[in-house]
Amino acid sequence: MPELPEVESVRRALERVMVGATFDEVVLRRPDLRTPFPEAFATRLTGRTVVALTRRAKYLLAEASSGDSLVMHLGMSGDFRVERAGAPLEIGVHDHVVFRMSSGARIVFNDYRRFGFMDLVPTAQLTNHASLRALGPEPLSASFDAATLARACHRRRVAIKIALLDQRVVAGLGNIYAVEALHRARVSPFRRASTLATRSGGPRESAVRLAAAIKHVLEHAIDRAGRADDRAGRFRVYERAGQRCLRRGCGGRIARRLQAGRSTFYCPVCQR
DNA sequence: CCCACGACCTGCTGGC
DNA sequence: TGCCAGCAGGTCGTGG
């Protein structure tokens, strides 16, 4: 589930039930996720109030009144479920963390592949945190545009698809939206990243289209995430191998190829 | 610095 | 029916 739009929608759900509420109880049902939980994880949170619930790339950040921030990542399969006060407690095998909040809500972290993680760091040191330090610009912020993208791609010889997955280039894109953005921008995923920039590192026309496409697909996905969604029709290329390209007048057939071990879906006709 | 690759986990699908 | 390979929306550490 979780690329930037899905993480953002989880953030909004958690914000409603966590901000202003206090951790009454924190239960760890195992000692680790991808990494061990930090020392005294539960006791450092218990009794503290959540001041803010923000997001950086695919990371969720819960700032606690203690001066610590809870850093959470959903990995490939992580998700939070919110249960209202009084709901019967039903814990599954892959429910690893339970927060009982003063609002009465119970928040359960489920992650069957366990690629997610949680860490607790002093809020003042958040920007130095190993996972957050090297992140590139937020794609939906004003600081991300064609010029930023071109500069980041300038000296990279890897394929543009690979560059888009590099969180230092742009923070929060994953396999699905990288592929969707490239299709929307009519840019081939196999082009070298450096071909989006001029010799001096300025944006070419393709960089302008790609930066705009990245913003568009992410914003669109966040909008949709709020509604009860039909999975069908969510994507224009992802998982559509063998089907017709949806670009008007194109008529190509969507193909699938592996790049760095991950599926790339693209239209060989309109993406150049 | 850049880049490729394997590791970490479980579950589902499709082919034989 | 069972079994097994391949694949799944992410990141990190280790090499060259």
The strands making up the biggest β-sheet line up spatially as: 1-6-7-5
* Strand/helix succession: HEHEEEEEEEHHHHHEE
Number of strands: 10
| Count of alpha and pi helical runs | 7
CA radius of gyration is: 20 Å
Separation of termini? Answer: 29 Å
Strand content: 15-25%
Low-confidence stretches are: none
The level of helicity is 25-40%
Instruction: Please summarize the sheet with the most strands.
Output: 4 strands, antiparallel
Shape: elongated
- What is the arithmetic mean of pLDDT? 94
The class by helix and strand makeup works out as alpha+beta
Give the secondary structure arrangement, pairings included.
Blueprint: H1 4-18, E1 23-28, H2 41-45, E2 50-56, E3 59-64, E4 68-73, E5 78-83, E6 95-101, E7 106-111, E8 117-122, H3 130-133, H4 146-153, H5 160-165, H6 175-185, H7 205-226, E9 255-259, E10 262-266
Antiparallel strand pairs: 1-6, 2-3, 3-4, 4-8, 5-7, 6-7, 9-10
Helix pairs in contact: 1-7, 4-7, 6-7
This protein binds a DNA duplex (16 and 16 nucleotides) through helix 6.
